[in-house]
């Protein structure tokens, strides 16, 4: 018989697992890993006629994508164009970034799988006599290691030609040059820390769902068990 067991710790672990998976996925897909050196907007004739200011902008560069500004001749309109600069895996700017993409993708796939499974832990707490929480916690720990490897290798690619074109000639491995780190890198780093917190917290979720109080309510015949 299926018992729906909801505890404060198990729900917190589930929500945190989902948040971490989405945060890492969004960071991976973003082009805001590196913020390039400031570039002045193109001085169009329309700018001069309307007296518009030439405000500088900073293009951004991701693992496989980029954002840059395109100026239009009419009405001084400027559009920010974002999209992948690499049409396939081999066109990613650096071998280190290729390795980063592989490790991050592996970690994110594991996190997404755990996030999906975590939703069903309210109904199913074990498979083949093994706790789902413990298995998921182990997988989150493995995913965290993949993410760490990806984040360590990523700065080694700052010396590639693509990064140098954004960050200036002083950019090299582990040296940003004229660039700065964007929100995507910090999000990926924060998500990695939260991944290990999730892995540790999964043990608390297991303890909460197998506590004596839960067992007592199961023996009383309750199918829906909610504990704070």
UniProtKB/TrEMBL annotation:
Main location: membrane
Region (Disordered): 39-59
GO biological process: single fertilization
InterPro entries: LHFPL
Domain of life the protein comes from: Eukaryota
Residues passing through the membrane, by range: 12-35, 96-120, 132-154, 183-203
One GO cellular component, as annotated: membrane
Protein's UniProt keywords contain Transmembrane: yes
Membrane topology: Multi-pass membrane protein
Sorted UniProt keywords: Fertilization, Membrane, Transmembrane, Transmembrane helix
Location relative to the cell: Membrane
Family as reported in the entry's similarity comment: Belongs to the LHFP family.
PANTHER family recorded: LHFPL TETRASPAN SUBFAMILY MEMBER 2 PROTEIN, LIPOMA HMGIC FUSION PARTNER-LIKE PROTEIN
Protein name per UniProt: LHPL2 protein
Organism whose genome encodes this protein: Tricholaema leucomelas (pied barbet)
């Amino acid at each position: 018989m299926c018992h729906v067991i909801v505890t404060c710790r198990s729900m917190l672990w589930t929500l945190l697992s989902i948040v971490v998976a989405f945060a890492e996925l969004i960071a991976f897909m973003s082009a805001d890993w590196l913020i390039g050196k400031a570039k002045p907007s193109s001085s169009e004739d329309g700018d001069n006629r309307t007296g518009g200011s030439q405000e500088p902008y900073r293009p951004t560069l991701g693992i496989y994508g980029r954002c840059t500004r395109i100026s239009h001749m009419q009405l001084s309109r400027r559009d920010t164009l974002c999209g992948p600069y690499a049409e396939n895996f081999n066109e990613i700017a650096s071998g280190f970034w290729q390795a980063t993409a592989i490790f991050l993708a592996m970690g994110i796939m594991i996190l997404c799988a755990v996030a999906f499974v975590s939703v069903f832990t309210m109904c199913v707490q074990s498979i083949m006599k093994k706790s789902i929480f413990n298995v998921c916690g182990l997988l989150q720990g493995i995913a965290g290691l993949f993410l760490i490897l990806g984040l360590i290798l990523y700065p080694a690619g700052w010396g590639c030609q693509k990064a140098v074109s954004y960050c200036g000639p002083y950019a090299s491995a582990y040296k940003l040059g004229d660039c700065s780190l964007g929100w995507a890198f910090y999000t990926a780093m924060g998500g990695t820390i939260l991944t290990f917190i999730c892995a540790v917290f999964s043990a608390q979720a297991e303890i909460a769902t197998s506590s004596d109080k839960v067992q007592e309510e199961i023996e009383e015949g309750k199918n829906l068990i909610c504990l704070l």
